[in-house]
Design brief:
78% of the residues lie in helices and 0% in strands. By secondary structure, the protein is an all-alpha fold.
Amino acid sequence: MSFIVDGMGQAADLLLSGNPETWSAVYATVVVTAMSVVASFLMGAPLGFLLGYYSFPGKRALRMIADTLLSFPTVVIGLIVYAMLSNRGPLGDLGLLFTLPGVAIGMTLLGLPIIIALTANAVEYADGGLRDTLRTLGASNGQVLRAMLWEVRYHMLLAAMAAFGRIVSEVGISMMVGGNIKWHTRTITTAIALETGKGEFAMGIALGVVLMVIAFAVNFALAGLKRRTATR
């Protein structure tokens, strides 16, 4: 168990000493995660809300697709994105393969179904009487829509947190699309896999501690945001 204690101490040393390799992986992780979560939320939250709020032909099929994509193999997502961004793919001219934006595209596809499905589920199970009450009081469609958005705001925040947790811990997509290039696309998760494979358990644990610190910091920030909005 001594290597666990050594890893904890090494984690502090790596962060406090400003180790460039560690901070490069931290930077790549933060950039990719931020781009992916923001993109998946901006696209997924409106789609999920519309999917749960309105009734239309084919809604059940779309819900089934969204729910099925929650368990879509991440290695397949990485393979699809790699094929799309490679030189022989339709997006090869953009030069996004083995770049942080390219990894973010794959991570966005990973987080998008989570936000769509959880948001749609929250809207469907929201207080159905609220909509009828507002319409009885003469509220316009826009006012009803805003009220429903406010009603499910916490559930949408939880959807974003769930997507964040899945994205920040993903290895396969980062490895396939990013290439795990040192100083360039190596994230904390791919660095942990590499160091553990080399037998550097202390370094792997140190990077794992850093990853947990990032995850907890984001969750605490979102929890604080939730408390502030609850007091308004």
